[in-house]
Amino acid sequence: MEHEMRAEYEEGVLPHADTPVKIWHMVRLDGTVAMCGRELAPSAATQSAEVWGTRQGEPFCHTCGALYLREHPGDIA
To answer: What domain count does the chain have?
Structure first.
């Protein structure tokens, strides 16, 4: 199954190109519900799951990380 990272923003903040990301979550490709269950904005920034575990993917949801590792145990950074 393919995944991507999707941004969460501070409450009440609309996603824009220059909006700071509160935390990154892992979603199934093109999804808006994070693996941890949080609903994310369809217009939120996304990035490849390949940046998971790198500085570009921080800060990252710990719950999503644990669930992602269960599906992809070979992806430990």
So the answer is: 1
Distance from chain centroid for Cα 35: 9
pTM over 0.85: yes
Q: Report in angstroms the alpha-carbon separations of 56 from 26, 37, 46, 52.
A: 14, 22, 12, 8
Domain range for 16 is 3-75
**Prior bond of 20 cis (ω within 30°):** no
Positions in the chain whose pLDDT score sits under 50: none
Q: Rg of the chain's alpha carbons, rounded to an integer?
A: 12
> pLDDT by residue (tens digit) across 25-44?
999 998 999 999 999 999 99
